[in-house]
Each structure stands twice: as structure tokens, then as C-alpha cells.
Amino acid sequence: ISRLPRHIPRIFPTFPAGYHQSTYSNSSNLKKFLQISEEVHEALASKTPIVALETAIYTHGFPYPDNVDLAAKVEAAIREGGAVPATIGILDGIARVGFSQPELERLASTAGQKTTVKVSRRDLPFVVGMVWSQPGNPNPGYTRHVTAHNGGTTIAGTMLLAHAAGIKVFATGGLGGVHRGYPNPMDVSADLVELGRTNVAVISSGSKAFLDLENTFEVLETQGVFVGTFGKAGTEVMVPAFYCRESNIISPNILENPRDAASAICMSPTALLPCPQLITILDASHMMGLTSGQLLCNPIPEEFEIPEKDINRVISKAVEKARDRGVFGKDQTPYILNEIKEVTKGASLAANTALVLCNARMGAQVAQELARLEK
Ligand code: PSU
Ligand code: MN
Fold first, then answer.
1. 19-20 and 34-37 strand pairing
2. How many CB atoms lie within 10 A of CB 353?
3. 119 phi and psi angles, rounded to 5 deg
4. Residues at CB less than 6 angstroms from ligand 1
5. Does the pLDDT at position 36 exceed 60?
6. Collapsed DSSP state (helix, strand, coil) of residue 58
7. How much is the ipTM here?
């Protein structure tokens, strides 16, 4: 990055006709940088249920063109569930909430390219700034070499943008977490910290199984994140382990149905009806003005589960290989996912696809219940 000039004029982007800026959140200046699609804009205005979706899973998790196929299926699942999908990512240096099919295809087709960035909180100003710094844009005196301006947003990055747009429910595959071997490397996903600071509900199949799950859930506790798992009340419900339905970690809360989940998200105390445990938590958190997010764990459907023994052997090898090759930082998660994919001959991708779809469907239901509670 070249040195920045001292006085950078404050220019906020103006968007082409048919796109909108958010007026549905009070989230600082970030919302001025969002380009919101017509469909999502209307859904926000009419309080239609919306489910946010990430794009790092397409740019750094699934190969092209499988990723386009997955994206279409996930959006369709949300529509069938009666909600509007809001896919979030960076295309041409613009943070988008709601992608058209050709836009999504364009982003997904850059999967694996060096110039497509995996965008977490820290990367956002870098990737979004790029387009405004190109020669010929209306920002005088501020040009620099453009190397990248497309990005797949991680869970952390997507939460941040969803919140700025005013979207509360976000469905995805697996949360980042504490990598095995901590504190060497001291690799803790920004997803955990984002959940601690941003009030968005993330529906996932727990944290990815190649991570240190015990420590991941410890950090979520430290960060003040509500964690609930879909299951039967009165039984011992474990948080899921991505490819498997269960880990050895007891879920701090049980969500019996999408309505329970919506209650855990909803910040209006009068709407908190169904589950007495949740009422206490949320009443209190509302009154205290807490702003942290919620992790709603949805175990992978039984028929797609990969037996724990099988997957653990593959995972150990993949993690070891990453360490031997010196893969670290933001490359670690995509590297390990790819290793697991190769060794399981694609079985991990099938499981991953199934769980993302299952979470999208659950996301639509939770968004509907939330809309009902907030009426
Ligand atoms: N799930 C996948 N593939 C992925 C990811 C999740 O099947 O690539 C991404 C998510 O976007 C998640 C990110 O937020 O990995 C976590 O990366 P890290 O551990 O570097 O924070
Ligand atoms: Mn990391």
C-alpha cells in the first residue's frame, strides 16, 4: 500500500439507479458504503423476513462452478421458506447486500484467484477503498495501484455488513474458531470477536470440526455470545461439530423451535413469550443495552453426517499437513477445507452443501418468526 495523501476528501459513493443505501440501521457511516439491491431494499421497507448469506464460502470454500450452483440452491431454499435472501460480498470494490444472479456468478467465478480477497472486518476498508482510489474516479489526488477489489465476506465480514443494512438473521455453514494447537499459532477467528460485538444471529452447524471446539466455545463465552442449539428441551443437547451432529460440549441453551430462536434474537422484551429461560436472559440483556450477537447451532441432518471416527482421522492429517507446510493466517481455513475435500473425495463437500441448505431453511423460519414477534 502506498502512502496515503494527508487530506482525503470524504466522498461517499453514489449508486446507480435501482440500488439503495440503507436507512434501516443506525450503524455509523458503514451503511453509506453499502449498495443494497432493490429486492432487499423493499424487503427491509416492508419488514419482509430476510436472511443474510456470506460469500467467503463461495470464493474460498467451494470451487467454481459448484459454488454458483450452491449459491442458487441456498437462495432458492430461503425463498421457498418465505424469506428474501440477501447475499453479501464485495464486487468491483462495492460492498453489496443482495446480488443479482449474473453478479453472483461473476464473483463466484473468481474463486481461488489471488485478487479475490477473503474479507473479514480488517479487510473491509482495504477492498472497498480500492475502487474509490482508481484513476478516473471522482476522488482527486488519491490513486494507488489497484490489485484487488472483489471479495468474499467471511462470517465476521458478513455480520458487519448485515448489521449495517439492518438485517438480523444470517445463515451459513460453519463458524470459524480457535485453531488447534493454540497458542501456537495464536489463531482465533475474527468470527468469534464479531459475534461479541455485533448484534446479528448466526445460524450455523456449530464451529468447523478441524478447530479446537472446546476453546472455541470458551472464547464465545468470554465474548458474551448467546449460544443455543436446536434440540429437545429436557435432554442433554450438545453443540454440533459441523460434519457430525454432536460434539462433547454441552449447549448452554436449547432452542426447541424457530420461535425460541427468534426470541433469543428479538430485543423487544414484550415479544419474549415462549421460553422462560430466554426471557430472563433477553430481558436483562435488553435492559443493559448489550449489543453482542447470537450463535444458533443447527446440527447437520443425520443422513449427511460423516462418522466421527472417519472424519477425525482425515482432520488430524489435514491439520498436520497445514502445519508442516507452514500454512497459517487467513489461508489456514481454506487450505484445511480443501485437504479434507480431497481426502474424502468430495464427501465433505456434499456434507457441507447439505448443512448449508439446512441452515438456510432454518434461517428463513427464524426470520419469519422474528418478523412476527417484532410486529
Ligand atoms: N465454511 C466453509 N468454507 C469457508 C468458510 C466457512 O465451508 O471458507 C469461511 C467462513 O466464511 C468463515 C471463515 O467465516 O471461513 C473463517 O475463516 P478464519 O478461520 O480465517 O477466520
Ligand atoms: Mn485465523
1. antiparallel
2. 18
3. -100, 110
4. 54, 56-57, 60-61, 154-155, 173-174, 176, 189-191, 330, 333-334, 337, 352
5. yes
6. helix
7. 0.95
